[in-house]
Amino acid sequence: MKIICIGRNYSEHAKEMGAETPKEPVFFLKPDTAKLSDKIPFYYPNFTKELHYEVELVLKINRVGKNISPKFAHKYYNEIGVGIDFTARDLQRECKQKGLPWEKAKAFDYSAPVSKYFISVDSFENKEDIRFSLLKNGELVQQGSSADMIFSFEEIVAYVSQFITLKMGDLIFTGTPSGVGEVAIGDTLEAFMNGNKMLDLKVK
Ligand code: MG
């Protein structure tokens, strides 16, 4: 199982990061060791002093695919959940400045908590407008909708599959809306999708 993450897929977030709106999807990977299931505690890593949350909609791939055309991309994922793309922002900044890869800032152990449950694509009234949000210590810090994505789920699946074969069980994090920020030990993060609580995480 691998985790593919899309960067800068919401223009307001690209702006807050001082990045340009991309002309094609930007993606990076997290290994299977990055996955953290709901209810398992998350421990603040000791190599960062600036850990950021990024709440994202997550696609679950349900069949093997390579060079998928956008027209058929909807057949390659059958469930959608929510996840947090934890980012060591200080390390990421350092990597960017040096022109180095971001892995140590993005792909570390448990950097990808995902919701325990994923929802069947068929049960969404409109997957082009899935609303999701993140509360930190009970306060709303991020909210977005799949309607605001620069690249749609189908475009993402098609694009990534040109380079990397998608396999059953792979997860695709589809990008974060604006409002990313820091977490500290003791914080609680709760992620919602269409009003339903999907993820509950305590930072230890
Ligand atoms: Mg992200």
Mean pLDDT: 95
Please bin the fraction of helical residues. 10-25%
* Text of the CATH class: Alpha Beta
What is the number of beta strands? 15
Beta-strand residue percentage: 25-35%
Q: Major sheet: order of its strands?
A: 2-1-12-5-6-9
**Proper CATH architecture:** Alpha-Beta Complex
Taking the sheet with the most strands, its summary is: 6 strands, mixed
The helix/strand class is alpha+beta
Distance between the termini: 26 Å
Total helical elements: 4
What are the low-pLDDT stretches, counting only 5+ consecutive residues below 50? none
**Shape, please?**
globular
User: Can you write the helix and strand succession as a string?
Assistant: EHEEEEEEHHEEEEHEEEE
Query: How many domain units?
Result: 1
At CATH level 3, the topology is: Fumarylacetoacetate hydrolase, domain 2
What order do the helices and strands come in, and which of them pair?
Elements: E1 3-7, H1 11-16, E2 26-30, E3 35-37, E4 51-53, E5 55-61, E6 77-84, E7 87-88, H2 89-98, H3 103-106, E8 112-114, E9 119-120, E10 131-136, E11 139-145, H4 153-161, E12 171-173, E13 181-182, E14 188-193, E15 196-202
Parallel strand pairs: 1-12, 3-8
Antiparallel strand pairs: 1-2, 4-7, 4-13, 5-6, 5-12, 6-9, 10-11, 10-14, 14-15
Magnesium ion (MG) binds next to strand 1.
